[in-house]
Amino acid sequence: MLTVVLECQDQEPELAQTLLVLVAGAVEGLVSDVVVLDHGSQDGTSKVADAAGCRFHSQWDIKDILHSARGEWLLFVEPGARPQSGWIDEIAEYVSLNKLPAQFTASRGYRQPFFKRIGRAKPPLELGLLLPKKEALASARSGMRLSEFVRGKKLRRLSSELIPSWVARSAR
Length: 172
Fold this sequence. Notes:
Layout: E1 2-8, H1 12-27, E2 31-38, H2 45-51, E3 55-57, H3 62-68, E4 73-76, E5 82-83, H4 87-97, E6 102-106, H5 114-117, E7 129-132, H6 133-139, E8 156-163, H7 165-170
Parallel strand pairs: 1-2, 1-4, 2-3, 6-8
Antiparallel strand pairs: 4-7, 5-8
Helix pairs in contact: 1-2
């Protein structure tokens, strides 16, 4: 039902944290496959992806990746991002009733200090992106990064919270 797609570059620990949370979605039957798109990692990113049963690509074209996705919906998240409790049921219900893209709500427990938030451009995938596969295929271009799928989209907000990837990066 759902394919999760992540882009990585030397983010082995962050990828492991995200994949750990996604296991529950696979057990519940929501997550059908996970695709890791690599940008030349020199760490153990490929080993973590392989151990978790992910499809790992070091050379790829986004159109080919989207065509091969098993799910009818795609979830793009940054390595290190972790959906919080309730995300499985909410996404299952959302995709069965909606056709519009959505994103998670920012975790109330993990906020950057005020002065770090001021003037900071929020990364496009900081809150993830839940997108119908058909819509992604229609806008995909060769060489496109996952973050470009967010541009110009009016996104619905899920009530489930997401711990952003910067939390995992800051714990390194």
